[in-house]
Design goal:
heterodimer, A: 113 residues, mainly beta, seven-stranded mixed beta sheet, four-stranded antiparallel beta sheet, 11 strands, globular, B: 111 residues, six-stranded mixed beta sheet, five-stranded antiparallel beta sheet, 0% helix
């Protein structure tokens, strides 16, 4: 089966600019997650979708981050405006159901200068 | 603050040596997963442990879930250079099925 697809792989922007990341989960996976992984740390959950509804966005900085999952398939994560501390790898993952093993994409490495 | 504490943070060993890494928490989990992440890639699931006291073996890797389901360990026998990577544990909360990751143990196996 095809894995979780993410794009772009790399993005470099200046602070205060906007950026968007895209994720296509494994076909049939109802649950989709966005994680932020800062260098030297483990992944931190930003938002979790079940189909196209938000299950958990308690750690999403909602003043600058937004995410949507239209039609319960693809998802986009947006940062507007970006700050230096947003530099990280943004990982998308999907699973058949909540909390069973996650399948991760290769991430988007964001550098904010 | 990390819900899950992993130790050591860094480990560098020679090929052929044995090692153990740990994942500890004050919380009880319904299950715990171990992932390995290589540079430029997403984490890949190694194993899921569910029952307190459970031991699972995956070739040279042995995973153990603590009796109280609060901690876990990963033991690698006769490490190989291909074992190099970031080992992450992730616990699934009893209350709400949320999954949280530890900060990982970065393992380097030198030839």
């Amino acid at each position: 089966e095809a894995g979780v697809a993410q794009s772009p792989r790399y993005k470099i922007i200046e602070k205060r600019q906007s950026v968007a990341f895209w994720c296509n989960p494994i076909s049939g996976h109802a649950t989709l997650y966005w994680y932020q992984q800062i260098l030297g740390q483990g992944p931190k959950l930003l938002i979790q979708f079940q189909n196209n509804g938000v299950v958990d966005d308690s750690q999403l900085p909602k003043d600058r981050f937004s995410a949507e999952r239209l039609k319960g398939v693809d998802s986009t994560l947006k940062i507007q405006p970006a700050k230096l501390e947003d530099s990280a790898v943004y990982l998308c993952a999907s699973s058949l159901e909540r909390a069973i093993p996650l399948h991760f994409g290769n991430g988007t490495r964001l550098t904010v200068t | 603050t990390q819900l899950l504490e992993q130790s050591p943070q860094f480990l560098s060993i020679q090929e052929g040596e044995n090692l153990t890494v740990y994942c500890n928490s004050s919380s009880v989990f319904s299950s715990l997963q171990w992932y390995r992440q290589e540079p430029g890639e997403g984490p890949v699931l190694l194993v899921t442990v569910v029952t307190g006291g459970e031991v699972k073996k995956l070739k040279r890797l042995t995973f153990q879930f603590g009796d109280a389901r609060k901690d876990s360990s990963l033991h690698i026998t006769a490490a190989q250079t291909g074992d190099t990577g970031l080992y992450l544990c992730a616990g699934v909360s009893l209350n709400n099925n949320d999954m949280r990751f530890g900060a990982g143990t970065r393992l380097t196996v030198k030839p």
